Protein backbone atom coordinates (compact mmCIF):
# COMPACT_ATOMS: atom_id res chain seq x y z
CA UNK A 1 0.00 0.00 0.00
CA UNK A 2 3.07 2.26 0.11
CA UNK A 3 3.59 4.69 -2.73
CA UNK A 4 6.99 6.40 -2.73
CA UNK A 5 5.47 9.54 -4.24
CA UNK A 6 3.40 10.19 -1.10
CA UNK A 7 5.00 11.67 2.03
CA UNK A 8 3.22 9.14 4.28
CA UNK A 9 1.15 6.01 3.79
CA UNK A 10 -1.92 4.28 5.21
CA UNK A 11 -4.39 5.87 7.63
CA UNK A 12 -3.77 8.94 9.76
CA UNK A 13 -5.33 10.82 12.65
CA UNK A 14 -5.35 14.47 13.63
CA UNK A 15 -3.48 14.69 16.94
CA UNK A 16 -5.18 16.99 19.43
CA UNK A 17 -3.65 17.81 22.82
CA UNK A 18 -6.37 15.91 24.69
CA UNK A 19 -5.37 12.75 22.80
CA UNK A 20 -1.70 12.80 23.78
CA UNK A 21 -2.14 10.85 27.04
CA UNK A 22 -4.59 8.18 25.84
CA UNK A 23 -2.68 7.51 22.62
CA UNK A 24 0.68 7.36 24.42
CA UNK A 25 -0.68 4.87 26.95
CA UNK A 26 -2.15 2.56 24.28
CA UNK A 27 -0.62 3.31 20.86
CA UNK A 28 -3.13 2.33 18.16
CA UNK A 29 -1.77 -0.04 15.53
CA UNK A 30 -4.15 1.21 12.82
CA UNK A 31 -2.76 4.77 12.85
CA UNK A 32 0.19 5.07 10.45
CA UNK A 33 0.76 8.82 10.73
CA UNK A 34 -0.40 11.90 12.62
CA UNK A 35 -1.16 15.50 11.70
CA UNK A 36 -0.96 18.67 13.80
CA UNK A 37 -1.44 22.38 13.26
CA UNK A 38 2.09 23.79 13.71
CA UNK A 39 0.72 27.00 15.23
CA UNK A 40 -0.48 24.92 18.20
CA UNK A 41 2.99 23.49 18.88
CA UNK A 42 5.67 25.97 17.83
CA UNK A 43 7.39 27.13 21.01
CA UNK A 44 5.54 24.70 23.30
CA UNK A 45 7.81 23.34 26.03
CA UNK A 46 7.39 21.61 29.36
CA UNK A 47 5.37 18.41 29.72
CA UNK A 48 3.38 18.89 26.52
CA UNK A 49 6.50 19.72 24.54
CA UNK A 50 8.20 16.53 25.73
CA UNK A 51 5.12 14.43 24.97
CA UNK A 52 4.90 15.90 21.50
CA UNK A 53 8.58 15.28 20.82
CA UNK A 54 8.15 11.66 21.89
CA UNK A 55 5.39 11.29 19.30
CA UNK A 56 7.32 12.92 16.44
CA UNK A 57 10.33 10.74 17.17
CA UNK A 58 8.18 7.60 16.99
CA UNK A 59 5.67 8.29 14.18
CA UNK A 60 5.58 9.98 10.77
CA UNK A 61 4.02 13.46 11.04
CA UNK A 62 2.49 15.96 8.65
CA UNK A 63 1.48 19.54 9.44
CA UNK A 64 -1.70 21.34 8.39
CA UNK A 65 -1.40 25.08 8.92
CA UNK A 66 -4.03 27.52 10.15
CA UNK A 67 -2.60 31.01 9.76
CA UNK A 68 -0.52 31.34 6.58
CA UNK A 69 -3.49 33.12 4.96
CA UNK A 70 -2.18 32.54 1.46
CA UNK A 71 -4.89 34.65 -0.18
CA UNK A 72 -4.63 37.63 2.17
CA UNK A 73 -4.06 41.14 0.82
CA UNK A 74 -1.59 41.64 3.69
CA UNK A 75 2.10 40.83 3.07
CA UNK A 76 3.23 37.25 3.56
CA UNK A 77 4.41 36.68 7.14
CA UNK A 78 7.98 35.66 6.38
CA UNK A 79 9.02 35.82 10.04
CA UNK A 80 6.44 33.15 10.82
CA UNK A 81 7.65 31.09 7.86
CA UNK A 82 11.21 31.12 9.21
CA UNK A 83 9.95 29.86 12.59
CA UNK A 84 7.83 27.28 10.79
CA UNK A 85 10.83 26.05 8.79
CA UNK A 86 12.80 25.42 11.99
CA UNK A 87 9.83 23.55 13.48
CA UNK A 88 9.32 21.36 10.40
CA UNK A 89 13.02 20.51 10.27
CA UNK A 90 13.30 19.92 14.02
CA UNK A 91 10.47 17.36 14.03
CA UNK A 92 11.23 15.87 10.59
CA UNK A 93 7.75 16.71 9.36
CA UNK A 94 6.97 14.80 6.14
CA UNK A 95 4.66 17.40 4.55
CA UNK A 96 3.32 20.88 5.20
CA UNK A 97 -0.13 21.82 3.93
CA UNK A 98 -2.34 24.89 4.13
CA UNK A 99 -5.82 26.07 3.13
CA UNK A 100 -6.46 27.64 -0.26
CA UNK A 101 -8.18 30.57 1.44
CA UNK A 102 -7.32 33.51 3.69
CA UNK A 103 -7.91 34.36 7.34
CA UNK A 104 -6.24 37.73 7.87
CA UNK A 105 -5.83 41.28 6.60
CA UNK A 106 -3.41 43.10 8.92
CA UNK A 107 -5.21 41.24 11.72
CA UNK A 108 -6.67 37.78 12.24
CA UNK A 109 -10.25 37.27 11.01
CA UNK A 110 -10.80 33.93 12.83
CA UNK A 111 -12.39 32.27 9.83
CA UNK A 112 -11.33 30.76 6.51
CA UNK A 113 -12.62 33.05 3.78
CA UNK A 114 -12.84 32.13 0.08
CA UNK A 115 -10.38 33.62 -2.36
CA UNK A 116 -12.24 35.12 -5.35
CA UNK A 117 -12.14 32.72 -8.29
CA UNK A 118 -10.46 35.13 -10.70
CA UNK A 119 -7.43 35.10 -13.01
CA UNK A 120 -5.85 37.91 -11.00
CA UNK A 121 -6.21 35.89 -7.78
CA UNK A 122 -4.63 32.85 -9.43
CA UNK A 123 -1.47 34.83 -10.26
CA UNK A 124 -1.39 36.50 -6.83
CA UNK A 125 -1.85 33.32 -4.80
CA UNK A 126 0.50 31.25 -6.95
CA UNK A 127 3.29 33.80 -6.44
CA UNK A 128 2.79 33.68 -2.66
CA UNK A 129 2.87 29.88 -2.67
CA UNK A 130 6.10 29.89 -4.70
CA UNK A 131 7.65 32.33 -2.21
CA UNK A 132 6.51 30.14 0.70
CA UNK A 133 8.13 27.08 -0.89
CA UNK A 134 11.30 29.08 -1.47
CA UNK A 135 11.54 30.07 2.21
CA UNK A 136 10.63 26.62 3.55
CA UNK A 137 12.89 24.92 0.98
CA UNK A 138 10.21 22.30 0.36
CA UNK A 139 7.11 21.73 -1.73
CA UNK A 140 3.85 22.38 0.07
CA UNK A 141 0.31 21.21 -0.59
CA UNK A 142 -2.81 23.37 -0.70
CA UNK A 143 -6.20 22.08 0.46
CA UNK A 144 -9.47 22.57 -1.40
CA UNK A 145 -11.65 24.36 1.15
CA UNK A 146 -15.35 24.51 1.95
CA UNK A 147 -16.97 27.88 1.25
CA UNK A 148 -20.46 29.34 1.47
CA UNK A 149 -20.28 32.31 -0.92
CA UNK A 150 -18.20 33.08 -4.01
CA UNK A 151 -17.75 36.86 -4.25
CA UNK A 152 -16.40 38.14 -7.55
CA UNK A 153 -16.38 34.71 -9.16
CA UNK A 154 -15.11 34.71 -12.77
CA UNK A 155 -14.31 31.01 -13.21
CA UNK A 156 -15.48 27.68 -11.78
CA UNK A 157 -13.90 26.52 -8.51
CA UNK A 158 -12.25 23.50 -10.17
CA UNK A 159 -10.56 25.70 -12.79
CA UNK A 160 -9.31 28.05 -10.08
CA UNK A 161 -7.81 25.23 -7.99
CA UNK A 162 -6.12 23.58 -10.98
CA UNK A 163 -4.72 26.90 -12.23
CA UNK A 164 -3.22 27.71 -8.81
CA UNK A 165 -1.64 24.26 -8.49
CA UNK A 166 -0.15 24.54 -11.97
CA UNK A 167 1.18 28.09 -11.69
CA UNK A 168 2.53 27.60 -8.17
CA UNK A 169 3.88 24.13 -8.98
CA UNK A 170 2.70 22.84 -5.61
CA UNK A 171 0.84 19.76 -4.42
CA UNK A 172 -2.77 19.11 -3.41
CA UNK A 173 -4.24 18.06 -0.08
CA UNK A 174 -7.59 16.70 -1.24
CA UNK A 175 -10.34 17.07 1.35
CA UNK A 176 -13.06 14.59 0.41
CA UNK A 177 -15.59 16.03 2.85
CA UNK A 178 -15.07 19.54 1.48
CA UNK A 179 -15.89 18.34 -2.02
CA UNK A 180 -19.12 16.80 -0.72
CA UNK A 181 -20.05 19.91 1.31
CA UNK A 182 -19.45 22.23 -1.65
CA UNK A 183 -21.31 19.92 -4.03
CA UNK A 184 -24.44 20.29 -1.90
CA UNK A 185 -24.10 24.00 -1.21
CA UNK A 186 -23.13 24.97 -4.77
CA UNK A 187 -25.01 22.22 -6.63
CA UNK A 188 -22.34 20.41 -8.58
CA UNK A 189 -21.45 16.75 -9.13
CA UNK A 190 -18.95 15.69 -6.45
CA UNK A 191 -17.53 12.72 -8.34
CA UNK A 192 -17.05 14.75 -11.53
CA UNK A 193 -15.26 17.47 -9.53
CA UNK A 194 -13.03 14.91 -7.83
CA UNK A 195 -11.99 13.33 -11.14
CA UNK A 196 -11.01 16.73 -12.56
CA UNK A 197 -8.26 17.17 -9.93
CA UNK A 198 -4.63 16.29 -10.86
CA UNK A 199 -3.60 12.86 -9.57
CA UNK A 200 0.08 13.66 -10.04
CA UNK A 201 -0.10 16.46 -7.45
CA UNK A 202 -1.79 14.51 -4.64
CA UNK A 203 -0.11 14.56 -1.24
CA UNK A 204 -2.80 12.90 0.90
CA UNK A 205 -6.54 12.97 1.66
CA UNK A 206 -8.62 14.45 4.49
CA UNK A 207 -11.95 13.02 5.59
CA UNK A 208 -14.18 14.52 8.27
CA UNK A 209 -17.71 15.02 9.56
CA UNK A 210 -20.07 17.93 8.97
CA UNK A 211 -23.41 19.36 10.06
CA UNK A 212 -26.48 19.40 7.82
CA UNK A 213 -28.29 22.68 8.44
CA UNK A 214 -30.88 22.07 5.69
CA UNK A 215 -31.37 19.98 2.56
CA UNK A 216 -29.36 22.49 0.54
CA UNK A 217 -26.96 23.70 3.25
CA UNK A 218 -24.16 21.66 4.80
CA UNK A 219 -21.61 23.18 7.22
CA UNK A 220 -18.08 21.79 7.47
CA UNK A 221 -17.51 21.35 11.22
CA UNK A 222 -15.09 18.47 11.89
CA UNK A 223 -17.28 17.90 14.94
CA UNK A 224 -19.23 14.77 14.02
CA UNK A 225 -18.80 11.29 12.62
CA UNK A 226 -18.18 10.90 8.88
CA UNK A 227 -21.48 10.24 7.07
CA UNK A 228 -22.08 7.38 4.63
CA UNK A 229 -22.22 9.61 1.57
CA UNK A 230 -18.71 10.88 2.34
CA UNK A 231 -17.44 7.34 2.92
CA UNK A 232 -18.91 6.47 -0.50
CA UNK A 233 -17.11 9.43 -2.06
CA UNK A 234 -13.85 8.26 -0.46
CA UNK A 235 -14.36 4.86 -2.12
CA UNK A 236 -14.84 6.63 -5.45
CA UNK A 237 -11.68 8.65 -4.85
CA UNK A 238 -9.71 5.45 -4.25
CA UNK A 239 -11.25 3.84 -7.33
CA UNK A 240 -10.11 6.81 -9.43
CA UNK A 241 -6.73 7.67 -7.88
CA UNK A 242 -5.77 4.36 -6.26
CA UNK A 243 -4.99 4.06 -2.55
CA UNK A 244 -3.96 7.47 -1.20
CA UNK A 245 -2.90 8.17 2.43
CA UNK A 246 -6.01 9.39 4.27
CA UNK A 247 -6.34 11.26 7.56
CA UNK A 248 -9.36 11.55 9.83
CA UNK A 249 -9.98 15.07 11.16
CA UNK A 250 -11.94 15.61 14.38
CA UNK A 251 -11.57 19.02 16.02
CA UNK A 252 -14.27 19.01 18.73
CA UNK A 253 -16.94 16.74 20.21
CA UNK A 254 -14.09 14.25 20.24
CA UNK A 255 -15.42 10.83 21.31
CA UNK A 256 -13.53 8.29 23.43
CA UNK A 257 -10.45 6.97 21.63
CA UNK A 258 -11.92 3.49 20.87
CA UNK A 259 -14.90 5.12 19.14
CA UNK A 260 -12.65 7.53 17.26
CA UNK A 261 -10.49 4.66 16.06
CA UNK A 262 -13.48 2.86 14.53
CA UNK A 263 -13.45 5.57 11.84
CA UNK A 264 -9.73 5.07 11.29
CA UNK A 265 -10.55 1.36 10.92
CA UNK A 266 -13.00 2.24 8.14
CA UNK A 267 -10.24 4.09 6.30
CA UNK A 268 -7.99 1.04 6.63
CA UNK A 269 -10.75 -1.27 5.40
CA UNK A 270 -11.52 0.96 2.40
CA UNK A 271 -7.84 1.12 1.49
CA UNK A 272 -7.51 -2.66 1.79
CA UNK A 273 -10.55 -3.23 -0.45
CA UNK A 274 -9.15 -0.94 -3.11
CA UNK A 275 -5.68 -2.51 -2.88
CA UNK A 276 -7.24 -5.94 -3.43
CA UNK A 277 -9.23 -4.63 -6.40
CA UNK A 278 -6.10 -3.11 -7.91
CA UNK A 279 -4.18 -6.37 -7.39
CA UNK A 280 -6.88 -8.40 -9.15
CA UNK A 281 -6.80 -6.01 -12.09
CA UNK A 282 -3.02 -6.31 -12.35
CA UNK A 283 -3.23 -10.10 -12.17
CA UNK A 284 -5.82 -10.23 -14.94
CA UNK A 285 -3.78 -7.81 -17.01
What features would you describe in this structure?
The chain is built from nine helices and twelve strands. The chain is α/β, with parallel strands linked by helices. The chain is 42% helix and 18% strand. The chain has a single domain (11-284), classed as Alpha-Beta Barrel (TIM Barrel), CATH 3.20.20. Helix 1 (20-25) links the parallel strand 1 and strand 2 (33-36). It is globular.
Fold blueprint:
Blueprint: E1 11-14, H1 20-25, E2 33-36, H2 46-58, E3 61-64, H3 78-90, E4 96-99, E5 102-104, E6 108-113, H4 119-136, E7 141-143, H5 157-168, E8 171-175, H6 176-185, H7 190-195, E9 202-207, E10 210-214, E11 217-220, H8 228-241, E12 246-248, H9 257-284
Parallel strand pairs: 1-2, 1-12, 2-3, 3-4, 4-7, 7-8, 8-9, 9-12
Antiparallel strand pairs: 5-6, 10-11
Helix pairs in contact: 4-5
